[in-house]
Amino acid sequence: MPVSAEMLRQAMRNWTTGVSVVTSCANGVCHGMTVNSFTSVSLDPPLVTVTLNRNTRTQALVAQSGVFGVTILREGQEAISKRFAGHSTEAVDRLAGLETFHLVTGVPLLKDGLVALDCRVVYEYPLPNSVLYIAEVLAIQSGEPGQPLVYHNRTYHKLVR
């Protein structure tokens, strides 16, 4: 029996992830989206990967500019995660009213995250409905120490010691 999208979605609900927001800009337009398909793939050189759905404004901006930022969210930032996750807000300015900063590429990074990474795409792999990007990390800025926002089975969780 072939694996359906729903079967894989159900299986992946068992995978616990951190939550991050990917942002990008091109031609004066900036946008971002919540992702959990983000990970480090190499320390030397410093490379990360993210997969973005083709039907998103953020993916279009990354394709145009070749750069993106990643802000790893901290515990208590569920509202920011939800703000950047909604399909209904794809056409609005999700960054409006939020404090941002820039490092090297000029992409907006969210203030108050655990850490922010500024990245330049070095490889891209087209998939049927998305694009897998591998990017060099050009700069990193850590925020105040804290716990990450954690996502498991369609719910936010807190780490406990």
UniProtKB/TrEMBL annotation:
One function term, GO molecular function aspect: FMN binding
A Pfam family reported for this protein in Swiss-Prot or TrEMBL: Flavin_Reduct
Signal peptide per UniProt: none
Keywords: Oxidoreductase
SUPFAM superfamilies the UniProt entry points to: FMN-binding split barrel
Record domain Flavin reductase like: where: 12-158
Key word Oxidoreductase present: yes
Superkingdom as given in the UniProt entry: Bacteria
Cited InterPro entries: Flavin_Rdtase-like_dom, NADH-dep_flavin_reductase, Split_barrel_FMN-bd
UniProt-recorded name of the protein: Flavin reductase like domain-containing protein
Organism: Thermanaerothrix daxensis
